[in-house]
Write a structure and sequence with these properties.
Blueprint: H1 3-14, E1 20-24, E2 29-35, E3 38-44, H2 51-56, E4 75-77, E5 82-86, E6 91-94, E7 110-111, E8 116-122, E9 125-130, E10 135-140, E11 146-148, E12 153-159
Antiparallel strand pairs: 1-2, 2-3, 4-5, 5-12, 6-8, 6-11, 7-10, 8-9, 10-12
Pathway: Lipid metabolism; fatty acid biosynthesis
Organism: Desulfuromonas soudanensis
InterPro entries: AcCoA_biotinCC, Biotin_BS, Biotin_Carboxyl_Carrier/Decarb, Biotin_lipoyl, Single_hybrid_motif
Length: about 160
C-alpha cells in the first residue's frame, strides 16, 4: 500500500466512529486503532533478510501523526497475593503525565482495568502502561525519571 492510500484510509477511519480497523493480505497487514485521544497505526510487510530482497522490498512510509501502540505490561506472579507489573519496553519511567501533575497512582490506590499506572518514554514517544486487571498498588518499585529495561519490575500489586 502506498502512502496516498494509507493517508486516505486514515482519513476515512478518523471521520467515522470506527475505533479499530484491521486489514491483511499476502503482502502486508494494517491495523489502525483509535482511543484515548491517540491514533495508532501498524503496517508490517513480510521480512526477507537477504540483502537483495531488502533493497527491492517496498518499505512502509511513516505517517508523522502515527505513534506505535502503547505496550501492555506483562504481570509476573510474586506470591499468592502480589503480582509484579513489569516494563514491556526500554525507556524512562514517569509516574505522572507532566512534572507538575500528580502521579497516576500511589501506594494504596485501587486501579481499574485500562487505567494508567505510569508512562515509559522510549525515543520521545510516551507509552502508557495500563492495568489489565483490577488491583491495589502495594509498592511502586521505580523512582520518577529512572531508566528501565525490558522486564524491569515497576509496581507490586494485589489483584482484586
Amino acid at each position: 500500500m502506498d502512502i496516498k492510500d494509507l493517508k486516505t484510509l486514515i482519513k476515512m477511519v478518523t471521520e467515522t466512529d470506527i475505533t479499530e480497523f484491521d486489514m491483511e493480505n499476502a503482502d502486508e497487514k494494517i491495523v489502525i486503532k483509535r482511543g484515548r485521544g491517540q491514533e495508532v497505526i501498524h503496517v508490517t510487510s513480510p521480512q526477507n533478510y537477504s540483502p537483495q530482497t531488502q533493497m527491492m522490498a517496498p518499505q512502509a512510509a511513516a505517517v508523522p501523526s502515527a505513534a506505535p501502540a502503547p505496550p501492555v505490561a506483562p504481570a509476573a506472579v510474586v506470591n499468592d497475593k502480589h503480582e509484579t507489573i513489569t516494563s514491556s519496553i526500554v525507556g524512562t519511567f514517569y509516574a505522572s503525565p507532566s512534572p507538575d501533575s500528580p502521579a497516576y497512582v500511589k501506594v494504596g490506590d485501587v486501579v481499574e482495568v485500562g487505567q494508567s499506572f505510569c508512562i515509559v518514554e522510549a525515543m520521545k514517544l510516551m507509552n502508557e502502561i495500563e492495568a489489565e486487571f483490577k488491583c491495589r498498588i502495594v509498592e511502586i518499585l521505580k523512582a520518577n525519571a529512572q531508566p528501565v529495561e525490558f522486564g524491569d519490575p515497576l509496581f507490586l500489586v494485589e489483584r482484586l
